[in-house]
């Protein structure tokens, strides 16, 4: 069976992803010209490479349209309702680290924990006449964390597709859930992370679609062993 491997076609994970496979003895070469969205692996004739964006990769591995992919854990857990049922996290690759966090304005002096935030959310409507608004593009992770893990039900998600950290200052939301790596964007926007507000510590992962046909496919095992051996 031909195995399809999806790699980032652009963005911050592209170069590190190719480098890991090269170290694993799987040199990726583009088919056709450099801008082609298909590739192959030198010496591995039963593997095809598809170059896609990081969020497309989580979707395509989740649906089983590709067999393996390299993408961020955050995108997999945000993009798929039953991530662990649909995909196996085969290896954490040691790059693309970023935390998905809950951050509130620094001047909320009394709010340092999710429990404090729960108290704020409970009083919010009485004080302000509306629910606490959370700006994020991670609505699934936010709901799981707020409603599932912390029992906070009184909030509203404001979908944000960019410049999320600016939402509290602009008035479009009260707090945010977003990704951070160095923390400098949060600091620049006078936001602080709650002490128990790290929802997920994400990094780039090799993920595999859970497919019955993989059980007796030697190429699947070879790919897993090669990548794990390169870490
Ligand atoms: N500082 C950072 N900001 C945002 N994402 C980061 C950061 N550091 C690592 N990442 C990770 O990088 C991945 C997103 O990569 P990138 O932004 O390159 O994707 P993209 O090409 O924009 O994808 P798409 O167009 O599908 O959104 C996510 O898994 C994210 O966790
Ligand atoms: O903690 P820091 O190191 O400041 O990084 C966090 C910021 O980096 C990302 O934005 P980026 O400008 O890279 O653009 P993107 O949202 O398009 O990925 C992310 O959305 C945060 O805003």
Automatic annotation (TrEMBL):
Enzyme class: transferase
Superkingdom to which the source organism belongs: Bacteria
Listed InterPro entries: ATP_PRibTrfase_cat (IPR013820), ATP_PRibTrfase_CS (IPR018198), ATP_PRibTrfase_HisG (IPR001348)
Annotated PANTHER family: ATP PHOSPHORIBOSYLTRANSFERASE, ATP PHOSPHORIBOSYLTRANSFERASE ATP-PRTASE
MF annotations from Gene Ontology: ATP phosphoribosyltransferase activity
Pathway the protein contributes to: Amino-acid biosynthesis; L-histidine biosynthesis; L-histidine from 5-phospho-alpha-D-ribose 1-diphosphate: step 1/9
Enzyme Commission number(s) from the entry: 2.4.2.17
This protein's name: ATP phosphoribosyltransferase
GO biological process: L-histidine biosynthetic process
Family membership: Belongs to the ATP phosphoribosyltransferase family. Short subfamily.
Function: Catalyzes the condensation of ATP and 5-phosphoribose 1-diphosphate to form N'-(5'-phosphoribosyl)-ATP (PR-ATP). Has a crucial role in the pathway because the rate of histidine biosynthesis seems to be controlled primarily by regulation of HisG enzymatic activity.
Keyword Glycosyltransferase: yes
Record keywords, A-Z: Amino-acid biosynthesis, Glycosyltransferase, Histidine biosynthesis, Transferase
Catalytic activity field: 1-(5-phospho-beta-D-ribosyl)-ATP + diphosphate = 5-phospho-alpha-D-ribose 1-diphosphate + ATP
One Pfam family recorded for the sequence: HisG
Cellular-component GO terms for this entry: cytoplasm
């Amino acid at each position: 069976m031909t195995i399809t491997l999806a790699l980032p076609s652009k963005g911050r994970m592209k170069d590190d992803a190719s480098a890991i496979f090269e170290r694993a003895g799987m040199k990726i070469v583009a088919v056709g010209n450099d801008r082609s969205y298909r590739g192959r692996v030198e010496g591995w004739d039963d593997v095809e490479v598809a170059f896609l964006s990081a969020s497309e990769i989580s979707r395509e591995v989740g649906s089983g349209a590709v067999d393996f992919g390299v993408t961020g854990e955050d995108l997999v857990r945000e993009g798929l309702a039953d991530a662990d049922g649909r995909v196996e996290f085969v290896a954490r690759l040691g790059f693309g680290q970023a935390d998905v966090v809950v951050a509130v304005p620094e001047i909320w002096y009394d709010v340092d924990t999710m429990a404090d935030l729960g108290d704020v959310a409970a009083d919010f409507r009485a004080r302000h006449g509306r629910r606490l608004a959370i700006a994020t593009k991670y609505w699934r992770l936010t709901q799981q964390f707020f409603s599932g893990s912390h029992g906070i039900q009184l909030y509203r998600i404001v979908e944000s597709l960019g410049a999320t950290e600016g939402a509290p200052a602009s008035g479009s939301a009260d707090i945010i859930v977003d990704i951070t790596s160095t923390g400098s964007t949060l600091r620049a926007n006078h936001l602080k992370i709650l002490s128990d507000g790290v929802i997920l510590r994400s990094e780039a992962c090799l993920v595999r679609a859970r497919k019955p046909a993989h059980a007796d496919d030697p190429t699947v095992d070879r790919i897993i062993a090669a990548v794990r051996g390169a870490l």
